[in-house]
Design brief:
InterPro entries: GyrI-like (IPR029442), Reg_factor_effector_dom_sf (IPR011256). By secondary structure, this protein is an alpha+beta fold. About 30% of the residues lie in helices and about 35% in strands. The protein contains three helices and eight strands.
């Protein structure tokens, strides 16, 4: 191989590692047991397969509403079954975490109140929302197993900013 080719490969690899670091790829989640705070999510329920076009459309609608300032807040979801399992079916509520329950909701949206005061395993990371969930769930489940905690099938996931993600799962009492 020529020296120029090896240099080009090295530059490309360095660039890719830099991008991965920039989006938080090397960040590690912080995981702890805490008490949850109440959340309000304006969104829409979804039940079906992850490959269903409506599933992706629900996320796109929420992101568009935030981008166009029609809803103030960060993206947020509730999953009623583990989103990290190999199963293709999912039951979820997809939308935007809001602060004011009196606002007019967009057409097709409803309000979901996630109760506070529950003992939860809380996992958060400073990373781009495209790579954060995998790291959050892996570390959350490892923490629960290491601490002999049984988790409910209720996964609350939200993104307070483009580079921060949070997942909370209630601990079975």
């Amino acid at each position: 191989m020529s020296r120029k080719f090896l240099i080009a490969i090295g530059v490309i690899m360095a660039f890719m590692v830099g991008i991965y670091a920039f989006v938080g790829g090397f960040s590690e989640p912080k995981v702890l047991v805490t008490t949850s705070e109440p959340l309000l999510i304006a969104g829409q329920p979804f039940e079906g397969t992850v490959s269903d076009e409506a599933f992706g459309n629900a996320f796109q609608k929420a992101a568009k509403l935030v981008a166009e300032n029609k809803l103030q807040g960060g993206l947020g979801n509730v999953y009623y079954n583990n989103p990290e399992t190999k199963s293709d079916s999912i039951k979820a509520f997809i939308g935007v975490v809001i602060q004011d329950s009196t606002i007019a909701l967009p057409e097709g949206y409803e309000l979901l109140r996630v109760p506070g005061g529950r003992k939860v395993v809380h996992s958060e990371i400073n990373a781009h929302y495209m790579i954060a969930p995998g790291k959050l769930y892996d570390n959350l489940f490892e923490y629960a197993e290491a601490n002999n905690l049984q988790l409910e099938n209720f996964y609350v996931e939200w993104f307070p900013s483009e580079r921060k993600a949070v997942v909370e799962v209630p601990v079975k009492e």
